[in-house]
Amino acid sequence: MMDARTIGFIGLGQMGGPMAGRLLRAGYPLVVHDARPEAAKPLLDQGANWAESPAAVARRATTIITIVPSSIEVRALLTGTEGLLSTLQPGSVLLEMTTSDPAVTRELAALVEARGAVLLDAPVSGGVKGAREGTLSIMVGGAEAVLEDVRPILGRLGAKIFHVGPVGAGHAMKLVNNVCSAAALLVTAEAVAVATRAGIDPARAVDILQVSSGRSNASDWKFPQFILTGRFDAGFAIRLMVKDLDGYARLARETGVPSLLGTAAAECYRMALARGMAEEDHTAVVRLIEEWARVQLRGGKEKSV
Amino acid sequence: MMDARTIGFIGLGQMGGPMAGRLLRAGYPLVVHDARPEAAKPLLDQGANWAESPAAVARRATTIITIVPSSIEVRALLTGTEGLLSTLQPGSVLLEMTTSDPAVTRELAALVEARGAVLLDAPVSGGVKGAREGTLSIMVGGAEAVLEDVRPILGRLGAKIFHVGPVGAGHAMKLVNNVCSAAALLVTAEAVAVATRAGIDPARAVDILQVSSGRSNASDWKFPQFILTGRFDAGFAIRLMVKDLDGYARLARETGVPSLLGTAAAECYRMALARGMAEEDHTAVVRLIEEWARVQLRGGKEKSV
Asked: Do B177 and A267 touch (CB under 8 A)?
């Protein structure tokens, strides 16, 4: 019944869904689970097998991927009733691809180790497009030898795979990445709003940033794709960004590093949360700045005020 | 004595020096001036002519480029004793390439216009390397027809030339660019310091940012070139960055746009100024963050504390 190559996959959301699909199409037998069973439908249609619980996944697979919203869900998946830890087989490898809190990751890794298994943290960057196309960047924390064992699997999901450090380092690196991403998006939004009010077309301002020292992923990708178009559908919610910025703030506190820019970014996103924008895309934080500035960056026209 | 193609060039510093050199090598007769005459030496050796004052430049050229530290120097160049305005010929074109305050630029443009001449603001991005290689981005504010007339000259200096809007819009856009550049540098520095204290090699963290959503000019260029190497020689001083961030803050106030990230970036740079780092390179602000975090990002070793 069980093929040694079988992969257990838990979390079939905007990222996990397309990632699981890629593994299936690469020929890996898949046992899948999600808190919302309907999320599994497209994968089951392609031949994946359903498992009723995390425990059922760990009974049927020794390589298990988890990618869920946060450490809260990861902890529940592992330690809850019918959780992974209740049935985890010795020698299993858990690839924890959630953007998690590194302190929680280290704690959970110790529980996994106590069962004779191994946890690697392996969060990703590259968004829904990267998940679909297998071009993610993957930041791995934990035993390097184990990473070598699972590299063929990760190679189906990502174009760049980095060993970052001990367990938890991958998750720390992901938070570090996300604070850079958030701050660049916010400063670009503020600055393009200023430019627009100063009479510059916002799309032109973004064009110029793209070839100047102010360039970032915000000017190169998020503005053209999700903001200037008014689509706001990068596939990553404001509540998740707030969770990550808070995780980064905790890490900065733990490591004793002052973080002025990170704090400003977090407070900006918290304002969006306070405005009831939790479920909106993280790029939609620009709407808040548009409102403050009384401009519309989409299309470039100043709103009549 | 005067060739119609003669260009007056005032300001032969880290940017202006190599830019003037390119024009000279492209065959333009050059009349040059700088507050420090010794800065002209290499150009005079290559055939440029020296002018004793801005007024002397405007007597001998009808196309005049200015690129000096700030609007303060630009105002003095124009309105001071032996200033450009005292001798400016009707029909002259003044290309003001300094990173100036757009409000001052508009005021000076009106004085130039009153003399029957035209000012275009045309600040640049791309650093000393871009100045040397002629790959600058140039952001032009002012009459589009005049831009077309001088485009061959600007084409020797920059690879991308953008008409941004009316006079002052180029300078506004440059400030908008610089706040994006400063905020990305600072958040990357903070975040890489956190990563380093969390046990991640800083060079590895920068490698990962380069291929992830946290990427920016800071991870792609400034960290590898000027920071991880410990060179801190991008050619743009902290006091100039503070000047630009203050100019941006003024513009944000004038246009009524709240600027949380811009303010945090300005305050960070002001701390560097308070530490006596005015003349150090703007990338050396990282030293301040290294000190706070008790890490060294160059070479990646944690300092013993």
From this structure: no
